[in-house]
Amino acid sequence: MEALETTKYNLKAQSIIESAVFNFNRNGFYGTSLEHITRSLNMTDKSIYYYFKNKEDLFIAALHHTQESLCLAITEAKALKVNALEKIQFLATQCASIDGLELLGNVPHEVTKHKLYPKIEKRLKKHHQITIGFFEMGQKDKSIIKGNPVDQWTLYTGGFLAYFNWYKFVDRSKVDYQKQIDDMRFMIERAFSTAYKKS
After folding, report:
1. 155-194 confidence digits (pLDDT tens)
2. What's the pTM?
3. Domain ranges, ordered by start, for the chain
4. What is the pLDDT of residue 170?
5. Is-contact 48 23, C-beta < 8 A?
6. 98-112 exposure pattern, b = at least 16 Cβ within 10 A, e = fewer
7. How distant, in Å, are the alpha carbons of 85, 156, 191, 192 from that of 198?
8. Longest dimension (CA), the chain
């Protein structure tokens, strides 16, 4: 019975986190109320405190949830037996399906003071270094044009932010996912590929 209750608790907490990711991503930390998060879960806003101490705790949980998805995407990209350009193309298409990814780059000041934030920040820097490493690798295997890998990474991630800012306000039922993936792969090829023929 105790195990069953624990499972129910964990499932409800996970549902809250997923709702938090969606709402924080759409409305921002300051524009999101607890009522926004609980409305679709048939919960009262006060009942959230049974699972999380405060809004900052919940934002940290949302960041961790997003980082887990990002970590999996990076691990899969690293394991591919392809050149570095194809690795960053694969990573881009995987990241496009991760809800809340831009939260990692828009952390409110209050949350940076949270005791668990340094761990998240350390992991984020590690992810940045791995991605920058793909650009360094690409210059060595000649799939990516020469340049400063950090500048290339900045351009790469900047394209993501523009994409996510647009995507979160569109009707997802009308999005052609395959076209989005194809467009993203082409954008990366055009920006970074040594094989791209500019007309």
Report:
1. 888 776 666 666 656 666 666 777 777 888 888 899 999 9
2. 0.85
3. 2-192
4. 61
5. no
6. bbbbbbbeebbeebe
7. 17, 19, 10, 12
8. 68
| Average pLDDT score over the chain | 88
Taking the CA atoms of 80, 149, 187 and 124 in sequence, report the sign of the dihedral they define: positive
State the architecture of 2-192 in CATH terms: Orthogonal Bundle (1.10)
Q: How far apart are CA 171 and CA 180, in angstroms?
A: 14
Pair of tokens at residue 171: 């009707």
Two tokens, residue 50: 């049974």
